[in-house]
């Protein structure tokens, strides 16, 4: 909890800045076919990838031995 809070806070602030102030932290591509990508507020999928490592530990405790990683 204590370690993950700054990561969650910074990701939320970056998303707010993307949506409100026109920044481009979560853009999927900067250039498409050689042309600069017009700002569209970022990609929610890229924002979602920030939370993959913040899953519940009990899921990893069950999953890792099943994968053979101990």
Which whole number gives the mean pLDDT? 70
Unreliable spans are none
> Span between N and C termini?
23 Å
Strand order of the largest sheet: 1-2
Order of helices and strands: HEEHH
Structural class of the secondary structure composition?
mainly alpha
Number of domains: 1
Give structural notes.
This protein has one domain. Helices cover 50% and strands 6% of the residues. The protein has helices at residues 4-21, 44-49, 57-67, and strands at 31-32, 35-36. A hairpin with a 2-residue loop joins strand 1 (31-32) and strand 2. The two termini are 23 Å apart. 3% of the residues are buried.
Provide key terms for this protein.
50% helix; two-stranded antiparallel ribbon; mainly alpha; 70 residues
Summarize the helices and strands and which ones pair or pack:
Layout: H1 4-21, E1 31-32, E2 35-36, H2 44-49, H3 57-67
Antiparallel strand pairs: 1-2
Task: Give a summary of the structure in a few sentences.
Helix content is about 50%, strand content about 5%. By secondary structure, it is mainly α.
